[in-house]
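Hi,

I'm pasting everything inline rather than attaching a file, because the server keeps stripping attachments. The sequence lines come first, and each chain or strand is labelled.
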Amino acid sequence: MRYVYRKVIFYVVALWVAITLNFAIPRMMPGNPAETIFASHAQQLQSNPHALAAIEAALGLSHDPMPLQYWHYLVNLAHFDFGVSFSEFPTHVSTIIVQSLPWTLFLVGIASVLAWVLGTGFGILTAWRRGGILDSTLPGITIFTHSLPNFWLGLLLLYVLAFILGWFPTSHAYDVGLQPGFSLQFFGSVLYHAILPALTLIIVTVGGWLLGMRNVMINTLAEDYITMAQAKGLSDRRVMFGYAARNALLPQITGLAMSLGFLVGGQVLIEDVFSYPGVGYLLANAVGQEDYPLIQALLLIIVVCMLVANLAVDLLYARLDPRVRNT
Amino acid sequence: VQGPSHKIGRPETDMLGTTVGRSAPEAPGPGAGTPVPAAPLTVRQTPRLGVPTWLGTLMSDRKAAIGIAIMAFFLLVGIVGPLIWRGDPMAADYTIRPQQPPSAPHWLGTDQQSHDVFLQMVDGTLPTIGVGVAIGACTTALAILVGLTAGSVGGVVDEALMLLANIVLVFPGFPLIVVVASWIHVRNDLPIIAVISLTGWAWGARVLRSQAMSIRSKDFVLAAIVSGETRRRIIFNEVMPNMISLIASSLIGTIVFGIMAAAGLQFLGFGNLNEVNWFTILYWAQNASALQTGAWWTFVPSGLCIALVGTALSLINYGIDEISNPRLRVEKVRAPKRAMAPTKAPAPVGKAVAR
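And the predicted assembly:
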């Protein structure tokens, strides 16, 4: 249990650091958002001397002493109040995030799991048949696909498959004309729009899983108990999956859990390329429009998800690997 | 863009008990029952024509040799190219209309501003690789500093540094980079390098730390401690030389990470637009809606070259892996005679794995 306590304490400390950094970083940066808005609308606002103060008040910016601001920030966080978005002014930040979160979870979630299953499966096969056809081609190919800049691949697929061939839609998550709802037509449209971005993600990430699984599997296959299992005359399939892959999977499972933690961060570049209305697209836009409350809230949510995923991994490890529990 | 942490699951010495994935140099030889042809572990070639031994060793691995060849090609083009194909890549050719497809005078066509894409590619080679190397060097230097200190000193220092590393590690790499880059309004290479390095060192530090810890308990280090060597000397003269292959692969990995992250940042508009490199070529192509207008030549070469450089560096890294872990080398050890059973999804591991 000591292991679990230590982990939980670490995550509490990490959470506090994340929250505090999130408070501190924007305030350490030069300028403030009200001045930015004031500067960009200087002509219209110049006639009104109270404009700057009015903007600051509207955006909830204060000149209180830092400790007081920090306290208000913590209180607001406890109420899940992230403030009001600058770019879509009266809308609350939390409303905007809640709208885009499902899209990212859907797209990146499906793509991550598919890439993991494909990569792990082929990793097992390539390691099992060393020097076979798969083993002499797949690692090389996937090292290349793993090195492709994902946004570039996305644009290329968009160009060839959507613009030239017209097989896929070029942007958004569903047909604009459709009413979101529980209809077959809507779900079909959602799937149809997800294919290209998901394909891009899978192509770029599958290599990491494959090569990782292959390396661990090769090391596992050299263990004595594998030789023992084969000497006993167990079927290849049983040795491959029940003995070798089963143990080699541990780091892969950790990796999957970690990447599911990253999931909420979305894929900023991919979502941007395909104008997919997820968290990543939201973040890219928020950054472009200097929407500080939105940026802050997004970062915080992403970090919290990472922390939860990591904690889950650590606890899962204690469950799966008895050696961890005993330390 | 994926952080270096994505490469192989989560090879963690302190949790798994054994290093998984990233091979430890002292990895035990192939299993007792496995018939392995007696392959020489390290091919110690005599230095010919001043070729350093480590390069010879690397070149003996096929993956690494291909990677080195590709990198040599790009470096050659980057250094010699601008001398052969003289001309200002920013000089607009107004005799033709913008965005012309590849032709004899313009091998890779021209972009929106009638700049020659081929000249831009050649001139941008060194700056592109340079940004990557700078990011890789800074990131790895930070990782060495933190990892080696934590692993060699131990105690409270170790605990504190690892807490810091673990906290940095849970911050989302690319979103954080984007946000910080947007706050820093300076537009040149330095902030980009700083931001990516400061968010990317933690993984390497953790890997190097576990390695340093295992080396620290070796006899020769204990001997150095007993003979009264200074702590700094022990860290840098006794421990670090035994981690060179790990440091090298960490450096190469972070260079790839740096190039990818810088490309992504530039694509979103946070970068140095005054410079000609492959990232800015991509940015301007996207800015001019090159794909919608069908001007693939402004767009395909730069992305492809980034991918090739990434591939080459990764190949070198896998080569280092294969050299330091003989098990990974391709040997026809385990080709089953029987036809293989149809592939199915891997067996579930939910039930206890090692009971």
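Chain B is about 55% helix and 0% strand.

If the labels don't parse on your end, tell me and I'll reformat.
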